[in-house]
Amino acid sequence: MEYFVQQLINGLTLGSIYGLIAIGYTMVYGIIGMINFAHGDIFMLGGFAALILFLILTSVFVGLPVVLLLLVMMAAAMLTASLWNWTIEKLAYRPLRGSFRLAPLITAIGMSITLSNFIQVTQGPRNKPIPPLVSSVYNVFGISVSLKQILIMILTVSLLAIFWYVVNKTALGRAQRATEQDRKMAALLGIDVDRTISITFVMGAALAAVAGTMYLMYYGVIVFTDGFVPGVKAFTAAVLGGIGSLPGAVIGGLLIGLIESLWSAYFTIDYKDVATFSILAIVLIFKPSGILGRPEVEKV
Amino acid sequence: MAAGANLMNNDPILKVEHLSMRFGGLMAINDLSFEARRGDITALIGPNGAGKTTVFNCITGFYKPTMGMISMTQQSGKKFLLERMPDFEITRDAKVARTFQNIRMFSGLTVLENLLVAQHNMLMRASGYTILGLFGYSGYRRAKEQSIEIAKHWLEKADLIERADDPAGDLPYGAQRRLEIARAMCTGPEFLCLDEPAAGLNPRESQALNELLRSIRKDTGTSILLIEHDMSVVMGISDHVIVLEYGQKISDGTPDEVKNDPKVIAAYLGVEDEEVEEVIEQIVEIETKQGGQI
Questions:
Q1: Of A39, A168, B9, B47, which is the most buried if we count CB atoms within 10 A?
Q2: In terms of residue numbers, what domain contains B133?
Q3: Rounded-to-integer distance, Cα B278 and Cα B272, Å
Q4: With contacts defined as CB-CB under 8 Å, which chain B residues touch A193?
Q5: How much is the pTM?
Q6: How far is A117 from chain B (nearest CA, A)?
Q7: pLDDT tens sequence across A218-260
Q8: Same domain, B115 and B99
Q9: Of B170, B202, B225, the domain-final residue
Q10: Of the partner residues A166, A185, A190, the one whose CB lies closest to the CB of residue B104
């Protein structure tokens, strides 16, 4: 039992990270119907930005409080990743918006390769380690919960609350939802659709950067290929939860995290990805729109 | 006289000059010029395929015209060349709003949200582009209350106040039509383009629509350009009628003038029954003279 709860907590932590990345996929898909395959690499880039800032800060200001250090790292990661995603959208995706559906998809894959190669060239191909920043571990009824895990979950929940509020209660979120439903009509009501789409990319990248920072902190190492597997898993999470749905992305993320850690705990760790994607396949067969996705009903 | 000073009440608000729109080999609009006067309800009529909706699409930035100029003069005297502006600026800056022949609601948003989306720019500025708004900045709260007031005002006018929190897609057809007009009015337009607002309405609903349009003009001074097939609406409320056929203007004047214009009768209403036989006889004569067969 204790073992099970332990795995549950590990799974939820991992799932939080997947969920945060998945939000970026789902928001971009919602607003322009495109899958931004470079999103996973934006997540990795966020992690690298945090790492670089950590190295600078710790060498310039020795003995900086950990909380402050983490906050600055996160802010820098969010800023860098947002800037990159904003630029990518503007340069690579916007000119193709009126084009056929596959064009932006292929471009996105191209951007993904570009980003990971850029990091490989500039940062080197080796694993980059970071010393443990937060190492306290609490023992509750025989279950060990690390402070890192608690931090990750609290951060995820609070970011989700902020994002839920922005999307559902503010003028910006309303404009995003309107653009999602009918881009032309939104423009005719005076909404700057291009800017709204840019903001969506920036928001998604900021969340991915937070996830990247947490990933770096949790595993203590990052490498240029780290955008791929977590990116694909987060994409799976978005599809599993129902692509286009914000709570769906989070639920999908948590589910993927749980499946992965429970499978590794009770079966063989080598097949954990197979398990994840098999469950995705099964869900898609029986509920193609995902867990919370709305099926598209065509009125005749 | 200085530009922009002393604008008469009846000066043109919208001036379309030598407008042409070509789609490949098809000339949808051919050298069309007309004016809509400030405070008037101007109707654009004509048989199907005459190019009425294309004119609307050029005015609201959906299409870039092949040739010609569309200028809009605001109450303040400020002038905008609509054919050069991107679509969202036409609404935001030039203050032109439009509705569609086939209703385009944000059906997943509530009725109230549909009206708030239309006030997006004002709310974004007031909320410091969302950031100040998140921290509960008081100016934003005031702007938010004000936008809800405006929305409520139009909901009452359109008789939809009880449905404010329902998804817009759940409203019956006639109510969606009124909501679309209310939403266009929430953008604070000076010039409102309505594409067949009475299409699919029953006589009672089109009466209610007439009332709504009249009260819009009376209370807000908004000028209206209207495409309509329902002659009871056209003749009942418009001050000025423009008739199009094959992308060209064939008549322009008050409803009475247009109604009695022989060209309009021939093109739009068709020839009368007795005349049809005469026409057939003439054709038969011509063809036999040429030695052809019928």
A1: A39
A2: 106-170
A3: 10
A4: 88
A5: 0.81
A6: 35
A7: 888 888 988 888 888 999 899 888 888 888 899 999 999 999 9
A8: no
A9: B170
A10: A185
